[in-house]
Q: What sequence folds into this?
């Protein structure tokens, strides 16, 4: 059994990826500092897979703890690095926190990985690196635009750090997965998204509104140059996204890379407007959602959806679940955590 380290393994995408790794026979070690996650997620994972991952509560900013961890687990065959701060608005107000948390930790990890016998590394990147792309769908060759937030900048710089490190360390094999908009929850409703405070993202805001925690959803702008006037995104089911990590890891471990640093878009290839997401929610939940058209949100791009040909043909991965599947699972999860 190959041992895989998952940093941030109790977070939203991390926990779903741990489940898929265990389903595929990997032994999983989780590092998480619990700053934006709960230890209960571990029980959720165990109740789905009947396997308990190794768990270490550890702050990756603590360099000596990271060194000690790798001394103890010197048989790690792959690392999937999710642990990072991810709130776009917060990053604007606290840039140094974001640069320290998202970049120092990456550097400490890579330092240790270079000392391992084999090193396969997967980095959580984001479609935010493209900004407002000039052409849709967005291919991996689309230009990287100046970042609109320190958070987005940490993803761009993170990719550069890995690319530079791969250039001079040919034994390091890395893949950056550029996620579009991850939504949904595991079909069992045992793990899902747990936003702290008022959700900033569309889907948890919708489900919390329907659950009665929020009075209405604000639709940020209906005067965009799109068919219905609302912004378009590529919403990818978190279980499909989790599976993409397993495909990427197998590509690395089987030595199938074309170069030792590769990037892949992970999305569905389909763009959906905010109003289409609301309609999907209403369809699968049978509830009507209270929403109002309000002003545009600063910093929002008009449209972003992925060209997934590279992931489909080279990684061999393709999303399988629909927007309706994702909205239903998000709603079932919300009902589960609110005891509805
Ligand atoms: N939206 C609303 N009302 C809300 C929340 C969102 O109308 O209450 C709209 C937004 O304006 C946008 C769409 O729903 O059109 C999606 O918004 P999200 O906040 O869910 O997602 P974003 O596309 O803005 O953010 C995502 C990731 C970030 C990443 C960013 C880069 O969540 O991590 O893309 O573009 F940085």
A:
């Amino acid at each position: 059994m190959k041992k895989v380290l998952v940093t941030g393994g109790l977070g939203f995408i991390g926990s779903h990826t741990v489940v898929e790794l265990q389903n595929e026979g990997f032994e999983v070690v989780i590092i998480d500092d619990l700053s934006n996650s709960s230890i209960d997620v571990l029980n959720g994972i165990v109740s789905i897979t009947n396997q308990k991952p190794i768990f270490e509560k550890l702050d990756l900013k603590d360099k000596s703890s990271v060194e000690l961890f790798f001394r103890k687990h010197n048989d790690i065959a792959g690392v999937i690095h999710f642990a990072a701060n991810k709130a776009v608005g917060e990053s604007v107000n606290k840039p140094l926190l974001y640069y320290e948390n998202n970049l120092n930790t990456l550097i400490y990890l890579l330092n240790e990985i270079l000392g391992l016998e084999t090193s396969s590394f997967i980095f959580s990147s984001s479609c935010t690196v493209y900004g407002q792309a000039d052409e849709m769908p967005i291919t991996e060759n689309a230009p990287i635009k100046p970042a609109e937030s320190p958070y987005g900048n940490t993803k761009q710089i993170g990719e550069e750090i890995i690319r530079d490190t791969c250039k001079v360390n040919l034994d390091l094999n890395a893949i950056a997965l550029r996620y579009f908009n991850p939504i949904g929850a595991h079909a069992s409703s045992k793990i899902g998204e747990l936003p702290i405070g008022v959700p900033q993202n569309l889907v948890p805001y919708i489900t919390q509104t329907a659950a009665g925690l929020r009075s209405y959803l604000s639709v940020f702008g209906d005067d965009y140059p799109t068919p219905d006037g609302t912004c378009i995104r590529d919403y990818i089911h978190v279980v499909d996204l989790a599976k993409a990590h397993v495909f990427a890891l197998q590509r690395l471990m089987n030595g199938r890379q074309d170069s030792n640093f590769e990037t892949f878009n992970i999305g569905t290839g389909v763009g959906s407007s905010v109003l289409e997401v609301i309609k999907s929610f209403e369809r699968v939940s049978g509830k009507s959602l209270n929403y109002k058209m309000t002003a545009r949100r600063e910093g929002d791009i008009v449209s972003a959806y992925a060209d997934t040909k590279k992931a489909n043909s080279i990684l061999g991965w393709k999303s399988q679940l629909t927007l309706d599947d994702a909205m239903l699972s998000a709603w079932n999860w919300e009902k589960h955590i609110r005891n509805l």
Summary: DSSP finds eleven helices and 13 strands in the chain. The CA atoms of residues 61 and 74 lie 20 Å apart.
